[in-house]
Design brief:
Blueprint (H helix, E strand, L loop, with lengths): L5 E6 L7 H14 L4 E6 L1 H8 L6 H15 L6 E5 L5 H10 L4 H5 L2 H9 L8 H4 L1 H10 L5 E4 L4 H17 L8 E4 L27 H9 L20 H9 L2 H12 L5 H28 L1 H29 L4
Parallel strand pairs: 1-2, 2-3, 4-5
Length: 329
């Protein structure tokens, strides 16, 4: 044990990662690696909660996600990187916690209600979908995590985890710390159509996109909707392209674009070309590493196996305590 506080987080494998994933979670994970004892996992069982009818791609997506993680900067030397389903103890603790978790705790989960509405085309009337916060709690407390890096919208998830840990400790033996939320500032990156960047919307820019694909995608971005002609002054504060400039352009270019846009000194096409080149430069080292790891698939598998072995050693000790606490051997 390094003496550092421990954090745990996971990500569902649903395909290649895009800029929204990078700025919404991954970049924060990378920045926390030197400060915490980090456990980051690919949540393939969680992917089944909504995609149980189509599990055939999950393994490939998991491999691709690990490549994106490594290329972006997660380090197996600094963090424990593993696959959820390789650690069967997660499922055992999930089962035991489900015995003590009141159903109303799950039904009041705001994400549950929101997903039921958004994914109305899928049959989500399953125990797995209702009970996924219990699995999530097991994922976290089995490592006796001190904290979980999340955005403010995920605070209810952490509170359910804390309640479940508290209830177990009360009913049996105090084993689990109540993990806190590590609030992380995230840059809000919208898709090219100004909606949330999402694979399902087809509006994303991916970490492994080629330079030509990046340029083509950026060229299709919606800009200031009130600026109809090049000679009209624009408002950068409501323009998604300007948001990209603030992320990928240096300070002098951001100031220049801001001024030129407001005075109609630059058109949207030229503005997009500038930010596209900066984005291409930003993604270049990531794309190069993605290609490297794609060519070295065995190395990626070894990293996943090593991380899973380390995670397994931690959870086995925890589960010995859990079984003793509830007197099941």
């Amino acid at each position: 044990m390094s003496g550092k506080k421990r954090i745990v987080s996971g990500m569902r494998p649903t395909g290649a990662l895009h800029l929204g994933n990078l700025h919404g979670a991954l970049s924060n994970w990378i920045s926390l690696q030197d400060q915490y004892d980090c456990f980051f996992f690919i949540a393939d069982w969680h992917a089944l909660t909504s995609d149980y009818e189509h599990p055939e791609n999950i393994r490939r997506y998991s491999h691709d996600m690990m490549i994106d993680w490594l290329a972006a900067g997660l380090s197996p030397e600094k963090s424990t990187l593993f696959v959820q389903s390789e650690i069967r103890e997660h499922a055992e603790l999930f089962l035991l916690l489900s015995m003590i978790t009141p159903v109303p705790w799950l039904e009041r989960n705001p994400t549950y209600k929101d997903q039921i509405e958004q994914l109305s085309s899928r049959d989500l009337s399953t125990f797995g979908f209702l009970g996924y916060p219990v699995l999530q709690a097991a994922d976290i407390i089995i490592y006796k995590a001190d904290g979980v890096p999340v955005g403010i919208d995920q605070i209810p998830h952490i509170e359910i985890t804390r309640e479940i840990a508290r209830r177990f400790n009360y009913l049996y033996t105090p084993i689990f710390p109540e993990p806190g939320a590590i609030l992380t500032e995230t840059a809000k990156v919208l898709g090219v159509d100004r909606r949330k960047m999402s694979k399902s919307y087809g509006n994303a820019i991916y970490l492994g996109d080629s330079p030509d694909t990046v340029r083509k995608t950026v060229a299709s971005m919606i800009t200031d909707p009130q600026r109809m002609k090049k000679t009209d002054p624009g408002d950068p504060s409501i323009c998604n392209v300007f948001t990209f400039h603030k992320l990928y352009s240096d300070g002098s270019m951001v100031a220049e674009v801001d001024e030129l846009c407001r005075t109609a000194g630059i058109g949207c096409v030229a503005c997009k070309k500038k930010v596209a080149e900066n984005l291409v430069s930003f993604l270049a080292p990531i794309r190069e590493k993605i290609e490297y790891y794609r060519d070295h698939g065995k190395l990626v598998e070894e990293i996943m196996e090593t991380g899973s072995k380390k995670a397994r050693e931690v959870v086995r000790k925890t589960m010995e305590e859990v079984r003793a606490a509830i007197k099941i051997r």
